[in-house]
Amino acid sequence: MEMIAIDKELQSKTYPGRGIVLGKSKDGKRAVCAYFIMGRSENSRNRIFVEDGEGIRTQAYDPAKLVDPSLIIYAPVRVLGNKTIVTNGDQTDTIYENMDKQMTFEQSLRGREFEPDAPNYTPRISGVMKISGGNYNYAMSILKSSNGNPAACNRYTFAYENPQAGEGRFIHTYAKDVNPLPSFEGEPIWISIEDDDIDVFTDKIWNSLNEDNKVSLFVRFIDIETGTYESRIVNKNK
Question: Could you tell me the residue ranges of all domains in the chain?
């Protein structure tokens, strides 16, 4: 696998859908998390990210235009002790509740599967970051239909111990922009994280997303020694 700059990877795609980036800053001092959403329908585009405790949630920008909230209104990011959970759906709550009962990340998702949005069957992508005693590990998951067949759910979990400075992984929902939308394939993409400044990194991702389809972006840098963090939210709707 070849490492690729995140901005170049994003610029090569018109509609990756929703995406999660996890990794470590170039100086090795901070855990890096990014989550973005895109939309092609008016309902999907009618959203913003807002702060919700230590995490965030999606919210209708214009409540009068909200049609179906079931798959678009959720908490993408929640914090459970020293764990930061980020997902593309309400499985955030499932992971939070089950890990709070001492289940593993993988076990927490056993009762969930891809979204029921035929014919796309959008995969559920999830990530969890754990920071403890100056150590940092993360894992990512994708639950998807079997090559578009909803009769079977394929489950993949990828765990990254002692991630290296200036590197990360990127997973998103759709492989390419066609109809129906095919699910992401393979291992999360190996990306370079070339920045130590959260604002530079945020701008790089936001400016690399397709202008017509991007909706919102969340970025968080967490100090690996102290656990303190800073976050950024960018919404196209203002």
Answer: 4-235
